[in-house]
Amino acid sequence: MKMIQNEAGRMVPESVNGLKQVPYMGVAKYKPEGYKAKPPIRSCADYPEDGNKIVKNLKEALIKCGIKDGMTISTHHHLRNGDVLTNQLFDVIHSMGIKGIRWFPSASFSCHKHLIPYLEDGTIHHIEGSMNGPLGEFTTYGKMAGVGVLRSHGGRYQAIQDGEVHIDIAVIAAPTADPFGNATGDRGKSACGLLGFALADSEYADKVIVATDNLIPFPCYPWQIQGNNVDYVVEVETLGDPAKIVSGTTEVTKSPDRLLISEYTAQFIEDAGLMKNGFSFQAGSGGTNLAFALYLKERMKAKGVKARFVRGGSTKYLVEMLQEGLTDYILDGQTFDLEGVRSMRENANHVNTSPFTSYNYHGKGNFASIVDIAVLGATEVDVNFNANVVSHTDGLLLHGIGGWQNCMFSKCTILAIPSFRDRIPVILDEVTTLCAPGELVDVIVTERGIAINPLRKDLMKAVKNSSLPIRPIKEIQEEVYRLCGGAPAKPDVDKRKVVAVVKWVDGTLLDSVYQLKK
Amino acid sequence: MKMIQNEAGRMVPESVNGLKQVPYMGVAKYKPEGYKAKPPIRSCADYPEDGNKIVKNLKEALIKCGIKDGMTISTHHHLRNGDVLTNQLFDVIHSMGIKGIRWFPSASFSCHKHLIPYLEDGTIHHIEGSMNGPLGEFTTYGKMAGVGVLRSHGGRYQAIQDGEVHIDIAVIAAPTADPFGNATGDRGKSACGLLGFALADSEYADKVIVATDNLIPFPCYPWQIQGNNVDYVVEVETLGDPAKIVSGTTEVTKSPDRLLISEYTAQFIEDAGLMKNGFSFQAGSGGTNLAFALYLKERMKAKGVKARFVRGGSTKYLVEMLQEGLTDYILDGQTFDLEGVRSMRENANHVNTSPFTSYNYHGKGNFASIVDIAVLGATEVDVNFNANVVSHTDGLLLHGIGGWQNCMFSKCTILAIPSFRDRIPVILDEVTTLCAPGELVDVIVTERGIAINPLRKDLMKAVKNSSLPIRPIKEIQEEVYRLCGGAPAKPDVDKRKVVAVVKWVDGTLLDSVYQLKK
Prior knowledge:
Structural class of chain A: alpha/beta
Radius of gyration of chain A: 23 Å
Oligomer: homodimer
Largest sheet of chain A: 8 strands, mixed
Distance between the termini of chain A: 21 Å
CATH architecture of the largest domain in chain A: 3-Layer(aba) Sandwich
CATH superfamily of the largest domain in chain A: Glutaconate Coenzyme A-transferase
Largest interface: A-B, 63 and 63 residues
């Protein structure tokens, strides 16, 4: 595997799974040329006139799609850790004796450890997509035949749109659908909220299968997935486990340290003058982020400030803000709890978005850079504000990128993170895996102080009279190193063996993940 | 101009405006090959990070789009006869000295007679799109430099999608928009309902300009047009004349003959057993169609029947059906009155659709063939049920195709037409211009009787005990010929001079419109 050093100083392979790669060139430096992917022209003459595209089962649909060895099959992750359909899909593919599939999920979860035997027996050649938990661990130990390719949500849309990844068959889990293939995620026993992660798949795949456990008469509206892009519809007994698809409630952190981080973050936003009428923010669904949203909400109420929009991952906390008139809109990318799903279904101002609208870097702009403040997590940062979100300091690949890279383009990107976890410092000299260049990280908030990127002199100035503990990042690092006994050990990896690569939002290669020696 | 006879027996040119054509091959006979059009890949790096794409005026936007001689510029017709923007657009283009534009509107109206001088002085080379009224007349007399190309709404989407028509610059009139280019037609002083006719333009044009007279802060939601496809946003004082964009009310016919046709049509649907729970229908906005909808509504109420969906062009009459629970959904393609606009804005079950969902024949099915009953008009029919909707018996091209060809694919297509107009019989031996093959026309309802296409033995059987005057079409024709003094004169045309062509839904050439000798 020939390696090249990219503009971030990271070594990346010249080619991945036989495809030549472009090394990362810097933020906004790579200029794409050429044209978008061009799906084949279809004709209504080849589809049922009455709009009924139902076939007997997944196997029949796959046969009609012309499944064969080596194809790329995509799935989406809106069913999260409750996904049963994908496992059943690969049971069927395995039973058909098909080999060498490139599985292209928008993300995989612990529930997909069911697929490890199929990775071992060659049914699946490799995974391109987030590998949360067991599949990431499997990959880090060099057990996957091919190289994993990690992309952000926007990067996945970009890769499909630009023709980097050609999907042969897309399988879309649809909590509600009609026989024509119109589908929505906002209702049905397996309701997951929305289906935006499958949008690109439905638009660009050669063949599209919609599988549903709630078939209703045409028209299924909203049609988050449009039947005009769908080839076959399959009824299944169940898509998954509702309790794991969306949680009944999402929990705010109870850790005093995390609560302090949340409070600092909210105060920073107010003190820096960012919390003003018509502003916008995005926060994730972790316990720290939820607490942050609550603290910010109190500050907004106290000052009589209203947001123009907030971006989800939505939870009941964002829904309450919408209902209380603290924001005009929730622009939602995925719903994390039942209240989020209900609100999306019932409230016209709780809007479902997609990686196309929100994150695709190869569009005519996207929503992410319009957002005033993004509050994100990270597994590690370095003293130059570079950040990691996919691997741990022990070298294990355990998380996907999600929308994290895309959100880096907000006007003020804040990483709200503890200064150490399990006695391992989080602020390092160098991150294990580079997922975002430091120039895009504006602020790091820890329980021990807040570091502002020196590039953001405007923010420095804005908070110079704040009571917040604004500190140089090195000073925080040194304090934590003293507490934890110095820099953590580097993972024991084989630098000749790349097990996965991290793409930047423009499709270039930002970093490599190396095989861990057991 | 070399002419070929197509499968319908009509003579069509081998090439049109320099482009080789495929002659019509029969319904569902032409199988497209190849791939959809592929727009260039863009990068967020080339668009403003804050999402603000506003430029000073139309001229600046056109310059930034790189306008030059011979380009294709598209507009949409949701502003109907109240459109001021398109006229202003061509005033600007004319003032810049640009020549030879192919104007590609989804339709043109009387208000666009303002553009005739630009057709005469070479600013506009020719029009591809419906030419209602004066521009049609202008064309029929051979005054346009190029050949007009008439397409259905679905055919226009198909032509753009398939790359038959490449749009250089799309100009989208947006009654409400944000600086990013998200746009909706359902609100604002120039509200027109929806913007579906501009969807393909926004997706496939090289450059997209959104012009609005109601700029609001991001996000403009609903985003019927997505800002991610938009290059520039222009604020204008006014898009048009609200009273001509949508009428305050739409008028039901008062003609006793037309009322009888409407009543026959409603009774036919009931007697044939088509009016049953979960059924669907589409009817246009003409006075006869409105009356039909009212008669059908009374029958539905009397029998306790509920539709699953009705298709608009919506009017207050369809809105009342939705509000009274007589249908679950209105699937709307355009809104004809203020009540339609209000309902679309306020009622989640009044759904905006596009030519992609509804009509595109080169998709994986479309909605049109799912509809149980379509009630349409026609300028002429022949004894073999072939129909004309664009020209009059005197040879003048005065109407567009609209969704008419697309609706022909409904399960029961009914032409509800008077047997004569101004003493000219409507049922002829041969139509002046062929717009739909007879095999797709199932029933012709006139005030003198109802003719069922002999191909539809099922319908014949279904109404055999009906009190309706079911008659052979020839018998009705003969009666009308006696009344009107025989067959009307053929128009005096120059068969060597094709002034416009009529495309079928699959992009093939169905017929030619010839130059009228003055």
